[in-house]
Amino acid sequence: MKPSNRLFVGLSATLGLLLSVAGCTGTVGGGTSTGTGNPTGSGVAGNTGSTAGNSGSAGNNTSGSAGNPGTAGSVVTTGTAGTSGMYVPLPCTPGIPTTTQLRRMQNWQYDNVMRDLLGVTTVTVGASSGLPSTQLYADFDGPMVPDAWRIYNDVGSAIAKAVMANATMKAKFIACDPATSGCLMTTIQNFGKKAFRRPLTTAEVTRFMNLGTGTPTGTPAEVAEATLYAFLVSPSFLTLPELDTTTMSGSSYQLNSYEVASRLSFMLWGSIPDDALMTEADNSRLTTAAQILTQANRMIAVRDKTTPLVQLFHRDWVQMNNGNAHWWNGDHDMSKFPLYTSPNVKTSYAQEMDNFFAEIVFTNGGYKDLFTSPVGFINKDNAAIYGMSNTGTALTKVNLDPVQRPGFMTRAGFLASYSHYDMTAPILRGAFITIFMIGVDPGPPAPGATMIQPPAGNYPTVRDRTDALVNQGASCMGCHTNVINPPGYVMENYDAIGAWQTVDKLGNGAINPVATVNFGDGNTKQISNAQQLMTELANIQKGRDMYSQNWVSFGYQRAPNPNDQCVADGISTKLGTGGAIINVLTDLTQADSFRVRVQAP
Fold this sequence. Notes:
globular, four-stranded mixed β-sheet, alpha+beta
């Protein structure tokens, strides 16, 4: 589990309920599917029962036989809901939080390190090929487990073999003939410094040199490969050690310059320090906030290397990396929505979301711009959805209609993900907005009710049908009518794949986007359109606080805590006064806790 997801781990369980769709007394979930048609049987009101029984979620959704999505929105109230884990502001308590001294490299960082260290971008293990991380055990918390260690060894062995067989990659490891006297020692010292992000000790050099002294004696090439393999499975490579106890700062330990260099490079670039950063470390010029800031500004300006961090953070923030969320899970009826030409278009939709977030950050955009910017990226897969024309495969930057397309939640990626197979899903959209953007906890479903269907009838709009479904019980109405549904109703001008609509395809009724939205803390407002909704969301302090706390947790790779809350509060204040998001990255490097550590008891 990525640290930024810890913030919402319990909350995701609740969202898993809500997205199928939830109420205070249960989950409005996917109905049974019968017949033939949609091969996934994903259902109009749920993704193949994706929330059934996971993380304490309620009830069982039946995905049905391969076929028709079936009837929408059966209310599921059996089972027990998980705890919400709703965001709770923490008090700011000045101080340095205790941290792990052996944080393990994350998989996305492993990919970057292999690319920058050895030029390796793909690896083959057995019959499987792909990014190095695709061959690894999934990211996890806690100590090393046997399966993960075995896989690290398998992948390390495969990479060592591939490097030694490729002249270009081999030169990044060893620049001399391993049979030549002194070559191996020079290689161990030079490559080792890059791999371990610090100079090797004399004892370490000796241990690596001893790899070639066993019986039977390997050839120089075999010893070189074994040496590379030993580096790639060393704990000093796979973890980011912070063990120096040389210098005290009060009751804390001052990180040495090599440890700070690793923190900087892995936080900003997800990879090893470059030569310029290592030069600063060699000269002990990474001990003050000002020295760190100089390097942080230089590194952030290298957009190609910083962009992945920015994109990965925002994927976490909007729950794209949350398996309980609905991003990219469902498909759509291509006969009803011909602009949805193939399930493969989701790749373009995801790339547009990534490009949107990066563009906001690297053009000095602020928190509000995430909700209000009309910038878009189009190609043949999504241009027509926005009423534009583009026949290419490359995404091209454009300015979309600022009234119809403000912010990331009016992009095809979000709208098509938070929809059903053949109709919109106001409760899915509303639940996402309510929980993750507003910070309102609708509460867990109550157990004990039975599964019901919406009343039979011909409904002119999805909104009418959704109201009929949830209005069958007063307890459902309490949460759905007053909290969950309204922001989703405001988004009904976007059809199931995100195209603008004024007439609902369900029954040809006119779209009514007006709703009274609960923005939390007793603040309710009548909202008339998506632009007005996004403007309000951009100004909610609680949403901004959640965003800031998520940045701190993500950047520091640890769960929210009162000490880090001081940093988060400062970031939220700056963002609230128009501060640029890109400055969050430098702010993270300026906290005392970035260059000082407290040893865990």
